[in-house]
């Protein structure tokens, strides 16, 4: 018996465990794998993620890893180096940290704060008692499954979210989703202070391909290289992402001095539910956070920061419900999500539709790559670093886009 059961010990689950433990609650995180464990990811932490990690007391731990201060956009034969914008709340730097290491640090931190972390424990099915979820039936490698009962349950089991599905969550099918693939290559440029993103992917014959590419220097002799695609791209279903990654690796091989035929690991891919597309986000005694709630930003595929942020919101709401002994308080969480991300994600989903058209994507890339200040505010919008206190060009452009989004009911 525990006050709160958290299903999944990735960024969302570990952060939820940390904040609940800090609130003084009895919280148990079950994680089906054992740390350190791999997770397919670009490993990029933007200023929003760094802020959450700082708030969890991990500033010194992070300082051991590769820090970068902006994005290099490439396309149309040009390069633009764009520093992270100044912001009153978020820092002006990011990190690249392999998820094997990052997730271990954050889960250990939750444990140190007082959460119970049960590794190698898989939540099989929810325990439902007179219509209320009261924990889960949990399996380990050894012995029979046991019941772990809880007053509240937080679902943080990632993009596939089998536990969430068992509770009735589903994805809004007409909204976009993403898919991405990545691996690592050795490169002498492994410790550059920029992450790189390519807006014009080409196949080996130089023909344009849908999607975007990234190179994130890890600082340990390797670079994380990947490509991502949105479901709004024409030909989405027929694209072989492994071939797309091969083409991209060939495209960047000389510049980054990588041997395209010799990645250090096998390429792995994953689906990315985004834009708040999975719900419901709350039941009478449970909340859904991180990828399990489709929390990734559709503008850029970042999800680690949103996993931390949604976890923190959920932990605060569960804390209130426990203190007030009133489960109805959980219903504040979907409202808070809507206030924080509702409009922004809607604009981002519309953007995903626009760039899904190759001709428009090409024109936008051309315009952006020829205009530094345009790209600076595009970065501010896409990384969700708009200033609440100031109306600069990025904020004005976003406001205009939001006004258009309001007219599109189903976007
Ligand atoms: C190729 C790719 C590249 C990406 N690159 C980036 C990037 O550079 N930056 C960024 O911010 N985001 C990136 N993302 C998105 C990011 O990986 C996710 O948004 C993030 O991992 C979400 O965290 P989470 O805790 O919700 O889910 P996860 O990280 O998936 O964690 C879920 C955890 O739950 C555990 N689990 C699952 N089911 C159970 C169960 N039944 N019982 C117990 N445990 C269970 C899993 O083992 C896992 O540890 C990328 C995604 C992909 C696919």
Layout of SSEs?
Elements: E1 2-7, H1 11-22, E2 27-31, E3 44-45, H2 47-55, H3 59-62, E4 66-68, E5 70-75, E6 78-83, E7 94-96, H4 99-113, E8 116-119, E9 122-129, E10 132-139, E11 146-155, H5 162-166, E12 170-171, E13 177-186, E14 194-198, E15 212-217, E16 222-230, H6 241-256, E17 268-273, E18 278-279, E19 286-288, H7 304-324, H8 332-355, H9 358-369, H10 372-382, H11 393-406
Parallel strand pairs: 1-2, 1-11, 2-8, 5-14, 11-19
Antiparallel strand pairs: 3-7, 4-7, 5-6, 9-10, 10-11, 12-18, 13-16, 13-17, 14-15, 15-16
Helix pairs in contact: 1-4, 1-7, 2-7, 7-8, 8-11, 10-11
Bound molecules: flavin-adenine dinucleotide.
Flavin-adenine dinucleotide (FAD) binds next to helix 1, strand 2, strand 9, helix 5 and strand 13.
Q: Outline of this structure?
A:
The chain contains eleven helices and 19 strands. It is α/β, with parallel strands linked by helices and 411 residues long.
Description:
The protein contains eleven helices and 19 strands. With 411 residues, it is of the alpha/beta class. Strands 1, 2, 8, 9, 10, 11 and 19 form a seven-stranded mixed sheet that branches. A hairpin with a 2-residue loop joins strand 5 and strand 6. Helix 1 packs parallel to helix 4 and helix 8 crosses helix 11. The chain starts with a strand and ends in a 5-residue tail after the last helix.
Shape field? globular
Give the distinct bound molecules: flavin-adenine dinucleotide
Quaternary structure of the protein:
single chain
Average pLDDT rating: 95
- First-residue to last-residue Cα separation: 42 Å
Approximate helicity band? 25-40%
Query: Tally the helices: what do you get?
Result: 11
Structural Rg: 21 Å
For the biggest sheet, the summary is: 7 strands, mixed
What are the secondary-structure elements, in order, as H or E? Answer: EHEEHHEEEEHEEEEHEEEEEHEEEHHHHH
β-strand amount? 25-35%
Identify low-pLDDT runs.
none
Q: Provide the structure class.
A: alpha/beta
Number of strands: 19
């Amino acid at each position: 018996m525990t006050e709160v059961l958290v299903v999944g010990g990735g960024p969302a689950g570990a952060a939820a465990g940390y904040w609940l433990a800090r609130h003084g609650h009895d919280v148990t995180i079950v994680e089906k794998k054992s740390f350190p464990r791999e997770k397919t990811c670009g490993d990029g932490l933007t200023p929003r993620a760094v802020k959450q990690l700082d708030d969890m007391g991990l500033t010194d731990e992070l300082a051991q890893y590769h820090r970068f201060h902006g994005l290099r956009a490439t396309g149309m034969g040009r390069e633009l180096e764009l520093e992270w914008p100044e912001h009153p709340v978020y820092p002006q730097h990011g990190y690249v940290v392999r998820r094997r290491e990052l997730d271990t640090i954050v889960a250990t931190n939750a444990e140190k704060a007082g959460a119970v972390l049960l590794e190698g424990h898989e939540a099989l099915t929810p325990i439902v008692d007179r219509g209320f979820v009261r924990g889960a039936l949990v399996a380990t490698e050894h012995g029979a499954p046991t019941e772990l009962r809880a007053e509240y349950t937080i679902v943080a089991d990632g993009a596939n979210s089998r536990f969430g599905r068992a509770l009735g969550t589903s994805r809004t099918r007409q909204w976009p989703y993403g898919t991405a693939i990545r691996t690592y290559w050795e490169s002498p440029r492994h410790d550059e202070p920029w992450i790189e993103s390519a807006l014009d992917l080409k196949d080996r014959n130089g023909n344009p391909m849908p999607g975007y590419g990234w190179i994130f220097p890890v600082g340990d002799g390797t670079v994380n290289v990947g490509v991502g695609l949105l479901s709004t791209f024409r030909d989405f279903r027929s694209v072989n992402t492994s071939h797309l990654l091969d083409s991209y690796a060939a495209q960047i091989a000389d510049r980054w001095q990588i041997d395209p035929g010799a990645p250090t690991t096998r390429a792995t891919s994953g689906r990315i539910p985004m834009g708040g597309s999975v719900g419901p986000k709350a039941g009478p005694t449970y909340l859904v956070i991180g990828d399990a709630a489709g929390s990734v930003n559709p503008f850029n595929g970042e999800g680690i920061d949103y996993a931390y942020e949604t976890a923190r919101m959920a932990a605060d709401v569960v804390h209130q419900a426990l203190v007030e002994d009133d489960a109805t308080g959980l219903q504040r969480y979907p409202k808070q999500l809507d206030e924080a991300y509702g409009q922004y994600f809607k604009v981002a989903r519309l953007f995903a539709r626009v760039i899904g058209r190759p001709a428009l994507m090409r024109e936008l890339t051309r315009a952006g790559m020829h205009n530094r200040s345009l790209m600076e505010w595009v970065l501010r919008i896409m990384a969700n670093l708009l200033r609440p206190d100031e109306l600069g060009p990025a904020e004005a452009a976003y406001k205009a886009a939001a006004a258009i989004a309001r007219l599109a009911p189903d976007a």
